[in-house]
Amino acid sequence: MTDLPDAPDRPHASDRPGSEPVVSGDVLGTPAPVMRTDRVASLVEDVWGLRVDTVRQLSSERDANVLLDGRYVLKVSNPAEDPAVVDMENAAMSHAARAAADLPLPSVVPAASGVSVARVIDDAGAACLARLITVVPGSPAEGRPVTTELAGQVGALAARTSLALQGLFHRAGGRVLDWDVRRAHHVLGEPDVLGSLGALGPPVARVLPRLAAAADATAALPAGLNHADVTLTNILTSTSPGAPVITGLIDFGDMHHTAHVCDLAVTLTSVVRNTARQQPAGTWDLAGAVLTGYQRHRPLTPQEADVLGDLIIGRLALTLAISQRRPAANEDHQAYISQYDTSTRRILGELLDLGPGQVTRRLHTLAGTGRVILSGTEPGDLLRRRRRVTGGALSPLFYSRPLHIVRGEGPWLFAADGTRYLDAYNNVAVVGHAHPTVTQAVSRQLRVLNTHSRYLHHGIVELAERLLATMPGPLDTCLFTTSGTEANELAWRMATARTGGNAAVIAEHAYHGSTKWMADLSSNEWPAGYHPDHVATFAAPRPSTGGVDRQTAAGRVTAAAARLADHGDKAALVLADVGFTSEGILDAPADFIAGLVDGAHSAGALFLADEVQAGYGRVGPAFWRFAAAGVTPDFVTLGKPMGAGYPIGALITRREIAESLARDYEYFSTFAATPAAAAAGLAVLDVLENERIPERTPTVGDYLRDKLRELARQDARLGDVRGTGLIAGIEVTGQPHARDRAARRAFARALLDALRDHHVLAGLTGPDGTVLKVRPPLIWHTGQADLFAAAVAESLATIG
Asked: What is the pLDDT of residues 64-86, one digit of tens each?
C-alpha cells in the first residue's frame, strides 16, 4: 500500500491539440481488472478494517468497481493507469469538497494505516491501485426520461463542478487520453476509423477541418482542471416519485486540464443523446435548458459558443469511434461500451444534416451570445430595412451617410467596417463606452435578479442615498424613472398637485422630452407656427435678447406667467436646462439662473433644473450645473448619463412636494428602480468617484474651448465658442458671402459630415441648427481635445 504513489519516469505528454501524444499506458486498450467477490470482501477487511456482507460488481469502461453493502465502492484502477492520475482524482474530490461543500460528491476512505491508495494484484496477476470511496445516494440518470428541468440541473452541476475545481493544480492534468474532445480530429483521422462509422463516415470526414480548428481555438479560451465527464452515466438522481433531483456526481476518471467549454460540450452531448425510451423534450429544448442551468453559474463568452457546436459534434463522433474499436477487445464490457450507439448516431446525424454552421448559430441564440453583431450586413441594405420597418422620416439618423456603429470602447465608437471614430457627442456614455465596471455590475445583477420596485432592494436605496448626498439639503426625496422625459412628466404632476396650476414656462428653444406633454414643453421641436396651449416662453440669456442679470431673468419669467394669466392659466412649473444646451450652449451667469428661480416663485410656480445634458459631473466637482450657479431648485431631473446606457432617470425634490401628489395618487413605473438599474447607477457613480473624473472636466473643457477659439480666430466661418465644463458650442457662421439662415444651416451640416469623414462624431444644436455641439463622454483628456480641434481644422479645409 502507498499514499500518493509515484508514477514511473516517462517522457512528458503534451496536452496541446495537434501534438503527438506520448502515453505510458493505454487504459482504453488494456483489459479492466478482475476481482472475485470473495477476494473483495477479504481485501476490504484486511486493508480498510471493514467487514462487508454484500458485494456487487458494477459496470465500468476500464476499471473494476464493486459496491459494498450499499455504502462504499471499491475502485480498482486499470493496470495501465498512471498513479499520478489516481492521486489527481483524489485531490480533485477533496479540493472540490472544500471549495463547494454543497456539491454532492463522494470522498475517499483512508485505509486502516492512514493511506488513501492501496496496491493490489487482481485475479489476472496485474498490479493495480485500489481505493475505497463513499457512496452518494441515487441511481444513474442515464436511461431515465430527461426533462428540461433535469437538463437545467445537469448544466448547473457541470458549471458548479468546474468552478469548484478552478483553483486546483496537479501535474497529471496534462495527461493525454482519447476521450479529450480536443483530440477528436486525431482519433477520427486514424486508419479505418471513419469507415467504421458507416453512413456517418463521409459527413464526419467533411467536418474534420472544423473540429481541428475548434480544438486549436480552445487554446485561447478559459481553461483549468475539469471533471470532463459530467454525464448522465455519472450523475445520480433521486429514486423517489416525482421530478428527479440530482443527488450525486461520481467518477473523476476522465479529468484533465482542458478548456471549460470542452467540459460543457461533454455534458451537453450526454443530455441531448440520452438513451431514455421516452423523450419528453426535443434536442434543442434540452440544449437550451443545459445552457441556461450552466450560465446561471458560469456565463459563456461568445468565443466559447463559437466552438461549442463543433466540440459537441466531435464528442458524438468520438463516442462512436471508441465504441466501434472496443467490443472485440473487451467482450465482457460490450453492452456498457455500446449502450449509447443508437442515440449517438441519431443525434450526430441530426446535427450533421443541420450543418455545423447552423448548429453554432442555434447555440449562440440559446446562450445569448450571438446578438452582438460586429460586422456583416451591408450598410445600404440595413438602411433600407430600417426605413421599411421603423418610423422612416419620423426617426431620422445622423449624417447624410448614416453610420453603422457596432462597438464602443472608452471615447471611441467603431463602425462595422472597423473604422474608429472619436465620440464628441454622446453624454449617454458618461464614463466612456462599455466601461467594464458598469457592464460587469449590470451583467452580474441581471444574472441574480431584476424585477420591479415593489420589493425592498438594497441597491436602489443606496443609489438614492448617494444621489441625494450630491444635492443641497432641502432636496431630500428621490424617485426613479426610466428616462429624463419620464422624470419631467412626474415633476409636472407634482407641480400641478402642489400649486394648483395648469401651465408651464420654458425657454424659447427648450427640449424636455418626447411624450405629448413634454413635446409641448420642448419648443425646440415645435413645427413652424405651432404654440401649444398652457405654455409660455422666456428668452434665453444671449446677447441679442438683452440683459443677463438676476432682475432681468426674474422679469422674463414673471412676464411669461402674466401672459398665461391673461388666458386664464396659472403657472405651475418653470423648466430650464440651465446649460441652455438646446439654445446653442449658453453661458448663463449664476445671477441669471437665480433670477429664473426668483421669477418662478414670484409667480407661484415651482422651478425645475433639467440636468440631463449639463449635469452628472460635466461642470466639475459641483456635479450639477445648478449647483455651480449656487441655486437650489424645487426639482432636479436626471436621465441619460445615469446608467451609462442602461435606461434610468430620476426626479429629486422635497418631501412635502412629493406628498402633494401622494394625497391622491401612487407613483409606479415597472422598469424604474429595478435592481439592474440600481447596479448601473451605482457603478457610474463609482467610476466617476474612483477615477476622479469631475475633478478634471473643467480643465479639459477649458483646454478644448481654447483650442476652438484659436481656430475661430483663424477662420471667419467659425464664431463664438461657449460652454461650462466639458461641453462646447461653436457658432458656425458659414461663408462670409452667404450668411442667411439656410446657407448657415447647410454649411453647418456640411461641416458635421466632413467631421464624420475625418472620423470624429459631433452634433448640431441651437435655434437654427448652426451650433456645433461637443458633449463628449467625460473621460476625455486633452489628447482627445487636440484630435477634435485638428479634425475641425481639416474639415474646414476640406469644405473650402
From this structure: 999 999 999 999 999 999 999 99
DSSP 489-544: HHHHHHHHHHH---EEEEETT----SSHHHHHT-GGGPPTT---TTEEEE--S-GG
Using DSSP, state whether 68 is helix, strand or coil: strand
Alpha-carbon distance of 679 to 676, in angstroms, equals: 5
| pLDDT at residue number 2 | 39
CB atoms within 10 A of CB 473: 7
Residues constituting the chain: 800
Intra-chain end-to-end CA distance of the chain, in Å? 90
Distances (CA, A) of 389 to 380, 397, 402: 15, 14, 17
> How far apart, in whole angstroms, are the C-alpha atoms of residue 422 and residue 761?
6
- Its pTM stands at 0.82
Contacts of 687 (CB under 8 A, 6+ apart): 431, 435, 437, 438, 644, 693
CA-based diameter of the chain, in Å? Answer: 111
Residue type, 744: R
Task: Dig out the grid coordinates for 140 from the structure.
Answer: 444513474
- Angle (CA) 21-23-26 rounded to 5° is 125
CA distance 518 to 244: 55
DSSP 8-state symbol, 628: H
List average pLDDT for each run of 10 residues in the chain, which is 800 residues long.
37 30 59 90 94 90 91 95 95 97 96 94 94 95 95 98 97 94 96 94 97 98 98 94 91 96 98 96 96 93 96 97 69 64 96 96 90 63 88 85 92 94 96 94 93 92 97 97 96 98 97 95 94 97 91 98 98 97 96 98 98 96 97 97 95 98 93 94 95 96 98 96 98 87 94 97 96 97 97 94
On the 0-12 / 13-18 / 19+ scale of CB atoms within 10 A, 11 is: exposed
The pLDDT of residue 11: 27
- Nearest of 10, 25, 26 to residue 322 by alpha carbon: 26
Residue type at position 759: H
Assigned C-alpha cell, 125: 496477476
Tell the burial category of 726 from Cβ atoms under 10 Å away from its Cβ (0-12, 13-18, 19+). Answer: buried
The reported pLDDT for the residue numbered 334 is: 58
Write b or e for each residue in 700-713: b if 16 or more Cβ atoms lie within 10 A of its Cβ, otherwise e: bbbbbbebbbebbe
CB 258 within 8 A of CB 228: yes
Amino acid sitting at position 342: T
Dump pLDDT digits (tens) for 329-359: 455 555 566 788 999 999 999 999 999 999 9
